[in-house]
Amino acid sequence: MTLKQFVMPVKSAYRQFLAIFRNMSIRNKLATGFGALVMLTLLVVTLNYFAGSGAISTIENTSLRRVPAMLAVSRAQACILKMFGDVRGYLALGDSRFIDDYNQTREDFLIVLERMNNLMPGFNPENRRRCNELMDAYEKWNILPEKLFNLRDNRMMREPAYAWLNTTGAKLTAKVVVNVKQILRVQAEADLSVQNNLILKDLSELQNSFTEMFSGLRMFVTTRNPNFRFEYNANLINNENTWKQIVRQKKRLSQRQQAVLEIIARSRTELLKQIPEYVFAVMDSERWRKDLHLFKIEVSPLVEKMQRLLLEMTDNKQEFLKADLTKGIQALDFARMLTLAGGTAALLLGIILAVFTGRNIIEPVIHLTRTARQIQKGDLNAHVHITSSDEIGTLAATFNRMIERLHQTMSALTHAKNDAESANNAKSIFLTNMSHELRTPLNGILGYASILKRNRDLTIDQITGLNVIDKSGKHLLTLINDILDLAKVEAGKLEIYPGLVGLPDFLDSVASIMRMSARQKNIEFIFDICNNLPAAVLVDQKRLRQILLNLLGNAIKFTSEGSVTLRVRNRIFDKTRISCKFEVQDTGVGMTPEEISRIFKPFEQAGDVKKRTEGTGLGLSITRQLVNLMGGEVQVKSDYGRGTIFWFEILLPTLKKATSEQCFAETRQVTGYQGQCRKILIVDDVEENRLMLLTLLEDIGFDIALADNGKEGVELAQKLHPDLILMDMVMPIMTGFEAVSEIRKIQGFQKTPIIAVSASVIQVDQEKSRFAGCDAFLSKPVSIKKLFEFMEKYMKLEWIYEDIRDSEKTNEKSESLADDSKIIPPPLDELEILYELARFGSMDMIEKRAVYIGELDEKYVPFTLKLRAFAEEFEDERILDMVRLLMDK
C-alpha cells in the first residue's frame, strides 16, 4: 500500500467526522471531546497509581517511623536544653517561675521518653543502646535539680562562708565585744585621770574596730565586692594597733579587768585565725556556693552526655531518612516519566479538542462578543453572521432581532432625553426669572420696612404692622430660597462652604430665636448643651442654622403644650475633629409610621392639617440633603400623640480659638459716620429699589446720586467720582456687568469700591460679577446689616451707633404711652386675670385681654397701651409688678 492510498481514506474519514461534528449540538460536541479527554486522563491516573505504589510505601515508612523518631529526638533535645536553662536561670536569679517552667518541661520530657520507648522496637541495636543510656542518665539527673533548688533557697546550706560568719564568727565577735564592754564599764567607774581616759578611748576604738571588721566582712560575703575586703583589712590594721596600745597599758588595769582582757585576747586570736581559713579561703575558691559547684561538677556533665546521645541518635536517623528519601525519589522519578508521557498524550488530545472547539464554538462566541462591543460603542448597525444550526446559531438569530429592537428603543429614548433636557432647562430659566422678579419687589418691601422701623415716633400698632410686613416678606423670601435650594438639590449643585464658627455663641443665637417663638405659644424651650463644646469649629454656618431653625420651627409649630428641647452633645473623634450630635425633641402631636415615611419628600407634610398651611413642605427635604452633604444622616423617632425626636450627627474640624467676624449687634443702630460727607452712586433700573437705598443712606448723612441704567451709571461715575458704587447687574441699555467693566477701565477707578446688588442668587452670576470687577456681591432683598458691613470694610468707615434699647426706653419715657399718673386701672377681677396670665407668660392672651379692656371704656386706653407695650417685648416681670401695684392700691 502506497502512502497516497493510506492518506486518502484518512482524509475522507476526517471530512465525514467534521461534517458530523459541525451539525452536532454544543452539548454533544463537548461531551464527545471531553469524554475522550476523561478516558485518557483515567489511563494516565491508573499508570501513575501503580508507578507510585513504591514511593507511597517508602513515604509511609518515613512518616510512621522515621519522622516520629526524629521529632521525638528533637523534642527531647529541646526539653533537655530548656530544663538545663531553667535550672541555671533559677540559680542565677532565684525567680520561682523558672521552677514552674522546669516542672512543666520535665513533664513534656517524660512524655517524649515514653514516646521514644514505644518507638524503640523499630530502632536498630545501636539506637536502642543509646536510648537506654539516655534513660539511665536522666534517672541520675532527675534527683539533682531538686537538690539544687533547695540549696539555692537556703543560704546557710548554699554558702559555707556565710554560714560560718552567722554562727561561729558571730559568736566569737559577740564574745569579744561583750568582754570589751565589761572592761569599759569597770574603767568608767575609775578616777577621771588622763591615763584612765586614754584607756577608755582605746577600749572604745577596739570595740568599734571589731564591729566595723565584722560588718565589712559580712558585706564582702554578701556582695563579693572587693572594696569591702579592703575595708576589712583597714579595720584589721586599726584593730591591731589599738590592741597593742591596750596591751602596753595592761598593768594599769585591775586584776579583774586583766582577767577579762585575757579572755578577749584568746577570743580575738581565734577569730582572726579562722576568718582567713573559713571565709577568705572559701570565698576565693569555686566552692563559695555549693549549688553552683554541684551544678558544674554533676549537672552539666549529665546534660552533655544526654545531648551527645540524642545527637548520635539524630545523626543515625538522618542516615536512614536519607536512604528512604532516595528510594522515594527514584520511585517518584519513574512516576514522573509516566506522568510526562500521559500528560503529553492528554496535551495533544486537548489541542485537537481546542481546534475543533475553537472553530465550532469559540469563534462564533468571539464574533458575538465583537458585535456586542460594537453595539456598546453605539454602532446599532452591527449584525452577527453565523451559519451553524446549533444553539449558537439560534443565539445569533435572536441577537440580531434584539439589535433591531434596541435600535428602535434607543431612537425613542433619544427623543425622550431631548424633551427632558429642554424641560429641565426651561424649569431652570423659569426658577431663575421667578427668583429675580420676586426678589425685586421684596427688596423694596423689606427695605422700607427696615427703614420705617428705625423711626422712634411710631406707635405700637404701627410697629406691629411693620413687624407683620417684615415677617411676611421674610416668609416669602424663605419660600423662594427653599424652592431654589430644592432645584439645586435636584440638579446636584447644592454645595457646602465651611467657615470658622464660634459654636457656643452660634447655638446661643439659635436658641434665642426659638425661645421667643416658644414663648409666643406658651410652651417651654429647653436648651441643653454639654460643657465641653469646642470654642470654634469649621462648618457652613448658614446651612447649619437653616437645619436647626427648620427642625426647631417644625417642633414648635406642631407642639401645643409641653416643651421643645435642643440638645447638643459631642465626643472626641480624633485630634482635630469632634463628632457633634444635634437632637430636637418635642412633646407635640407625633407622627404615625406612614407619615414618617413621607415627611422627607418635597411638598409633603404631616401633623395637623391647619398647621400644614404655615409651611411649604420643602424644609425637611432640604434639611435631609444638607445634613447628607455635611456627612450625616437625619434620624427620626416618633410616638404618635406624645412627641417626636429628630437627630443627626456630623464630624466637625475644631480650632483652638474662635475669631468670630465683627458684626452689627442687634441692640445697636447706625445713625451716622465719622469724617467728611461721602458720595454714593446707586445704579438700578427699578425706581423702588433706588428710592429705598436713597432713603436709607441719606438719613445717615451720605450724598446720593441715582442712575437708572448702566450707561448713565458710567457717565455719572466719570462726572462725580463717588466713594462707593452700588450696581444692579441686570438692566436695559447696558447691563451691570458691562458697566462695571467700563468703569474699571477709566483711570482713577481701579480702587473705587463697587458692590453688586442683584436679585440673582446664582453662583455663576456672583463669580461673573467678581470677574467684571465688583468687590462684593449683595443679593436682593438687601440686608441692611450686610450692606453696612461691606461699606465699613471697603470705605473704611467708622460708624456712629445708637443703642436701640436705650432709645426705646427714652422713647417710652418721652412719649409716655401710658403715664403712671394718667393710668386708670380696670376692675379688680380683670387685674386678677391679667396677673395669672402674666405668671404663665401668656403674652398673646394678655394682648387679647388688653384689647378687650380697651373696648370696655376709653378711660382704660392708657393702661392697655402700656400693657400691650410690655407684652410686645415679653416683659412678664414688669407686667406682674404693674398689676400687683395696681391691685394693692
Radius of gyration, taken over Cα atoms and rounded to an integer in Å? 54 Å
Largest sheet: 7 strands, mixed
Helix content: 55-70%
pLDDT averaged residue by residue: 75
Shape: flat
Unreliable parts? 609-616, 658-667, 804-819
The structural class is alpha/beta
What's the quaternary structure here? single chain
Notes on the protein architecture:
- By secondary structure, this protein is of the alpha/beta class.
- Helices cover 68% and strands 10% of the residues.
- The protein contains 29 helices and 14 strands.
- Strands 1, 2, 3, 4, 5, 6 and 7 form a seven-stranded mixed beta sheet that branches. A five-stranded parallel beta sheet has the order 10-9-11-12-13, sandwiched between helices. A two-stranded antiparallel sheet has the order 8-14.
- α6 packs across α12 (290-376) and α27 (843-856) runs antiparallel to α28 (861-872).
Summarize this entry quickly:
By secondary structure, the protein is α/β, with parallel strands linked by helices.
Fold topology:
Elements: H1 3-22, H2 26-51, H3 53-93, H4 96-119, H5 125-142, H6 144-153, H7 155-158, H8 160-188, H9 194-223, H10 226-248, H11 255-283, H12 290-376, H13 391-453, H14 460-491, E1 499-501, H15 503-520, E2 524-529, E3 536-539, H16 541-557, E4 563-572, E5 577-586, H17 593-596, H18 609-612, H19 619-629, E6 635-639, E7 643-655, E8 668-673, E9 679-683, H20 687-698, E10 703-707, H21 710-720, E11 724-727, H22 736-745, E12 754-758, H23 763-772, E13 776-779, H24 784-795, E14 799-803, H25 804-815, H26 828-839, H27 843-856, H28 861-872, H29 876-888
Parallel strand pairs: 2-4, 9-10, 9-11, 11-12, 12-13
Antiparallel strand pairs: 1-3, 3-7, 4-5, 5-7, 6-7, 8-14
Helix pairs in contact: 2-12, 3-4, 3-12, 5-12, 6-12, 8-9, 8-11, 9-10, 12-13, 13-14, 13-20, 14-19, 15-16, 16-19, 21-22, 26-27, 26-29, 27-28
